[in-house]
């Protein structure tokens, strides 16, 4: 009797929550009967429907240290009782510590060797906006027509007009008409000689080049190191500022602190951007520059009300301290190998359907011969949340702290979902 009463109460709650969905702007496609209530590390719970899920999405590569991380919760509680926000009219302790922390950890963990300055903001898109403005300013000071940006096919850099202007997907761009002028999309798979010729021929019009060292939304494509090394050389020869967008692939996701930590110092960026994992779910982001870029900036060139607020910065300090640790990074690589080994075995069983397994660390793509929407649905029905990337790829980006047995359990569900769809 009690069970029946509970069931009808939760059905009523579900119906009332579904009713409220009509107030959401029409921008997302979400399953209407999955409503999250809480999480714990790599688990998510829907208490309305009494269901639980292994989460291989981590809020799209955000909750790197797990859902409801107790240390993050403790920092939020303590910092919010001291100071949440004070604006950029004044310095605050946590913001100062985070900027130093990012620069010093970057240099200690093989990232941007000449790392120097940090601009703190609130989202990945905003971090890229700052990077684009800094690069344009650098170019304009050399020559007023040197203000274009080079980006790449298959890239994703965000949704504001500036970030969208350097995002290649026509589906996101075309509904919005004119975007910022002077953006050119090249093909990252072209020979370096061709890229050299393309960039060199427009050097008087190009201020910056933006690239994800591992393309995320486009389908999880790690850019070959030689390509990035070659691109940096071409940009230096043509006085073009190099921006690496590490919003998805940075902060331990690739198995190193930054995806560009795999590169020799000659290929390090002038600017790189980070967001997502930096706040473990709290909105905070950073644009990190060398002195070559910082030296052209003047007071008033850029700003944001919430950037570097004490609450976000305190969380960021904790996240950087945990991830900038060789042992932590090594276990990311080990967990990544568990996924790739199992996916490669699965590929042998389904060679017609699984075309490729690729990625680095815990950013892995499993590429299918068709859109994998039925697999995503079958996995969800069986208790695993996964996301797609590009048109045909399933993306694996779980919390970097996911327990090994949960990882294996999630992979069991994924295998069964593939079997269900293709057997
Ligand atoms: C590589 C990359 N750049 C930029 C962004 C935009 O970040 P945000 O959604 O925080 O604005 C994303 C988000 O998915 C991303 O993956």
From TrEMBL:
It is an enzyme of class 2 (transferase). Keywords: Amino-acid biosynthesis, Aminotransferase, Pyridoxal phosphate, Transferase. SUPFAM superfamilies: PLP-dependent transferases. GO terms for cellular component: mitochondrial matrix. InterPro entries: AcOrn/SuccOrn_fam, Aminotrans_3, Aminotrans_3_PPA_site, Class-III_PLP-dep_AT, PyrdxlP-dep_Trfase, PyrdxlP-dep_Trfase_major, PyrdxlP-dep_Trfase_small. GO terms for molecular function: identical protein binding; N2-acetyl-L-ornithine:2-oxoglutarate 5-aminotransferase activity; pyridoxal phosphate binding. Transmembrane segments: none annotated. Its cofactor is pyridoxal 5'-phosphate. Its EC number is 2.6.1.11. Pathway: Amino-acid biosynthesis; L-arginine biosynthesis; N(2)-acetyl-L-ornithine from L-glutamate: step 4/4. CDD domains: OAT_like. It comes from the Eukaryota. GO terms for biological process: L-arginine biosynthetic process. It is found in: Mitochondrion. Its main location: mitochondrion. PANTHER family: ACETYLORNITHINE AMINOTRANSFERASE, MITOCHONDRIAL, AMINOTRANSFERASE CLASS III. Belongs to the class-III pyridoxal-phosphate-dependent aminotransferase family. HAMAP family: ArgD_aminotrans_3 (MF_01107). This is Acetylornithine aminotransferase, mitochondrial. It comes from Kluyveromyces dobzhanskii CBS 2104.
